[in-house]
Write a structure and sequence with these properties.
Blueprint (H helix, E strand, L loop, with lengths): L6 E5 L3 E6 L6 E8 L6 E5 L7 E3 L5 E3 L5 E4 L2 E3 L3 H9 L5 E5 L12 H10 L1 E7 L2 E3 L4 E4 L5 E6 L3 E7 L8 E6 L2 H8 L5 E3 H9 L12 E4 L2 E3 L9 H14 L5 E9 L3 H21 L14 H7 L11 E6 L3 E7 L19 H20 L4 E13 L8 E12 L3 E10 L2 E14 L1
Parallel strand pairs: 4-9, 11-19, 14-19, 16-17
Antiparallel strand pairs: 1-10, 2-3, 3-9, 4-5, 6-7, 7-8, 12-13, 13-19, 14-15, 17-18, 20-21, 21-23, 22-25, 23-24, 24-25
Bound molecules: zinc ion.
């Protein structure tokens, strides 16, 4: 790690290209756009009404069969791993991937076309430090397919991969540090390869209309079929490394660590990404300050009550501990035995009702929305909660730190917030809340 901080990067300008989609065989145009600091990578469906966006985050993972599919609500994008690998490995942290179909153009089955378009757009430094996940202890992931992934501490991002085909034919090994120059030269040109037995039934079912020997290498027995000769003698393991980079890009943070992969696949890659993201959330949760700041930065009870209309017994926020940028904030609530709900929930066994924690999340998120709107003429109404989980009971005497992060503000009518409550360094509850704005 260098002593100077590494900065986030986006694209210098917009650039795109057109091609055929793999599964439907339709013409699709992909355009990469620059995006602000901390935006991450988002896919935008220009062909749908309201042009919905999907965050390239592991929480949005929907399917890992053959390719990686992400989605939010009913909106999906398929086969995201090659464009994500190219963006991530070429050093792009923030970008919008706009498409007029549900998957990117497949190109030649490698990441080369995406690298080309990134180079045409250029990569530009931004004014915020990059976010890294430093591997502190080894993590591992095993799948029924025989895939084994191990993540070890390292000062750089390295991948050592062993690929093996049926009966261990085409066993290949490669180990490298992933840098933009190495990726462009050694990994990006490696094409998708498939086993004939696997694709035959898909072809019969017409599920890969855009698939051809122009965008995939087909292995049949010992024969290797493709339009163009192999680009590397070990092209298969290189493509496996490409897929690992693309799937781990869903973590959102850059990784300082060494991935040791044996027979990897999208399923196992995604499970590792999920484990890393979970560990990152845990680390974020325990980095909450122990002493409460006063004055600038937070809100005391009076200030909270000037914003929230809630009063006893429904005010679920004692104070706002602090804001992080425009989109994150942490509130605090001390849970006393005098809370009225403990009388009935339950007599002799006081446990804070989960719905009161959801109410606390909604109140903290409302303060965030209020600050963002900077106007008091409109008020945010709590509309729905998704993915609500209660992980641990909250007892009298606990102090809850309530985290809220705005993940989506669609137009100025709807907003979405990802929230979680933390007690004693553990996440006790979480949920995704939707709000709508109405004039007062
Ligand atoms: Zn692939």
């Amino acid at each position: 790690m260098s002593s100077t901080p590494e900065f986030q990067h986006t694209l210098g300008k917009a650039a795109g290209f057109s091609g055929t989609s793999l599964h439907k065989g339709e013409k699709v145009t992909l355009k990469l756009h620059p995006a602000p600091v901390d935006h991450g990578i988002k896919f935008k469906r220009k062909d749908l009404q309201d042009e919905p966006t999907i965050d390239a985050k592991i929480d949005n993972l929907k399917m890992v069969e053959r390719a990686t599919t992400i989605g939010e609500g009913s909106v999906r994008v398929h086969t995201v791993e090659h464009v994500l690998a190219a963006l991530f490995a070429m050093g792009v942290d923030n970008a919008i991937v706009e498409m007029d179909a549900n998957e990117p153009p497949i190109g030649d089955g490698s990441a080369q076309p995406y690298v080309d378009v990134i180079k045409r757009a250029g990569v530009a430094a931004q004014e915020a430090p990059r976010k890294f996940f430093d591997v502190r202890e080894s993590m591992h992931m095993e799948a029924k397919t025989g895939a084994l992934l191990i993540l070890l501490p390292d000062k750089t991002f390295r991948i050592s991969c062993t690929q093996a085909g049926p009966n261990n034919r085409f066993t290949q090994f490669l180990s490298m540090e992933v840098t933009p120059a190495i990726f462009e030269r050694e990994i990006a040109p490696a094409r998708t390869f498939v086993y004939y037995e696997d694709v035959q039934s898909l072809m019969d079912k017409n599920l890969i209309k855009g698939g051809s020997l122009e965008n995939a290498i087909v292995v049949r027995g010992d024969a290797v079929l493709s339009k163009e000769p192999l680009r590397f003698t070990d092209e298969f393991v290189r493509h496996k490394i490409l897929d690992i980079i693309g799937d781990l890009a869903l973590v959102g943070h850059r990784i300082h660590g060494h991935v040791v992969a044996v027979k990897p696949g999208h399923g196992a890659n995604a499970e590792l990404a999920r484990a890393v993201a979970r560990e990152q959330t845990r680390r974020d949760a325990i980095s909450v300050p122990r002493t409460l700041p006063t004055g600038e930065g937070g809100f005391n009870t009076d200030e909270v009550m000037q914003i929230l209309p809630h009063r006893y017994p429904f005010l679920m926020v004692d104070r706002i501990v602090g804001f992080e940028g425009e989109t994150k904030c942490i509130g605090m609530k001390t849970v006393s035995i005098n809370e009225p709900f403990f009388q009935g929930h339950f007599p002799g066994h006081p446990v804070m009702p989960g719905v009161m924690q959801v109410e606390a999340m909604a109140q903290v998120a409302s303060i965030l929305l209020f600050k963002l709107a900077k106007t008091s003429s409109r008020v945010g109404y709590f509309m729905s909660a998704d993915e609500v989980k209660f992980r641990k009971p909250v007892f009298p005497g606990d102090t809850i730190f309530i985290h809220a992060e705005l993940t989506k503000a669609r137009g100025n009518r709807l907003a979405k917030a990802k929230c979680h409550c933390v007690v004693n360094d553990a996440v006790v509850s979480e949920g995704e809340l939707m709000f709508t704005f109405l004039d007062r």
